[in-house]
Amino acid sequence: xxxxxxxxxxxxxxxxxxxxxxxxxxxxxxxxxxxxxxxxxxxxxxxxxxxxxxxxxxxxxxxxxxxxxxxxxxxxxxx
Length: 79
What we know:
With 79 residues, the chain is α+β, with helices and mostly antiparallel strands.
């Protein structure tokens, strides 16, 4: 956990979040200031300041999860 990182605090459950998905590598939650309805944030559980710092497999997994969640949000909100 990185000192002062709000995302690390959310992963550690030290900061509140409306979690919609979690596995051993990533966490997805509703943005508190959504740009659009259903706006989610998908983050790695291991701290990384920059995308380039992520292990390639975790980065790929993060994007796979984001794609699945995007499809679910679109299906639920575009009726």
